[in-house]
């Protein structure tokens, strides 16, 4: 009987949310591993890394600024990984339609904060990759919104 109850709670899946969720999952895993590796390198060879940044980019960055930048990468990677998992697990499930939508908003906020931190703290310029991430996270949010609409429409 429990098997049939679960089938009644599952609505039509949103294909866009599923595919963008898969992209978020893969890219989140890559960003998280990149951030963790960067953190390891930063803490094991801190001053050498800072000297290399100063030498190649002609800017002086403190250990605190680099640590914050690396932590932002780790947090963003973890958020993307979580968003991808949520999209894959809760896509089309009644009662869980708000979770992917909330994650989409969190993703857009994280990428905006990340870009602001990189521009202000690391004195970098506006990155074109920011636009790509806004598009990907925007598609995730749109897919989550459509998922929410589909579930609500089927439950009327």
UniProtKB/TrEMBL annotation:
Transmembrane helix found in the keyword field: yes
Transmembrane residue ranges: 21-43, 66-87, 99-120, 126-145
Keywords: Membrane, Transmembrane, Transmembrane helix
Domain of life: Bacteria
Name of the protein in its database record: DUF4064 domain-containing protein
Naturally occurring in which organism (per UniProt): Blautia parvula
